[in-house]
Amino acid sequence: MLLYYNRDFYCIQIHDKEVACDGLLFHNVFEIPFVELTDKETSEIKNLFGNIKDELEWQDSSAEEMIRTYVKQIIIRSTRNWKKQHLNNTNIKIPGSEMEVFRDFSRYLEIHFREKHNVSDYAELLHLAPKTLTHKFKNLNLESPNQLIINRILLEAKRLLFYTDKPVKEIAYDLGYEDPAYFNRLFTSKTGNTPANFKKNYHSGKKYNI
Known about the structure:
Elements: H1 7-10, H2 39-58, H3 63-86, H4 96-112, H5 119-125, H6 130-139, H7 145-163, H8 168-174, H9 180-191, H10 195-203
Helix pairs in contact: 2-3, 5-6, 7-10, 8-9
């Protein structure tokens, strides 16, 4: 099942931070959130999806608000399960204030990765010294902020190379690099392939992770 909605539909309302559009399931620096469901939980989630489908077919004036309520229930249930599986069962106790830093970093990265490429840029947004931000990640054995920035840029570069016909130079400009040669070197050093070769090999059937 796939649930797709835009920010105007759900995020215009003020929700608890954990179930809002910048909550645990949306900007999670630890991993791409994956929640395992029991048979009972699977049935409950399926029922919510069924209710959403019914409301879409009903086309009543109150359907939008009902759908929004069901979406929130799905997010709350998923968030509770993720926390139970990933936070409560870990030996690392993360203070709430620290969790906020990681979530805010992820949110800012998603918004600004095309124009902000340095740790200092994000440290400034978080009102922290760059070294302090880096140490927070290191203390929990997470990838460094610098590596996370690079990973996000490369992910978008791969997406543009595969799904668009834009030349490498234009992709470099789109990602905030005024010097395409520098972008080319960065991509090559981190992936082992030049952008041009990545695009050529991917379309010829030689798959890489995107």
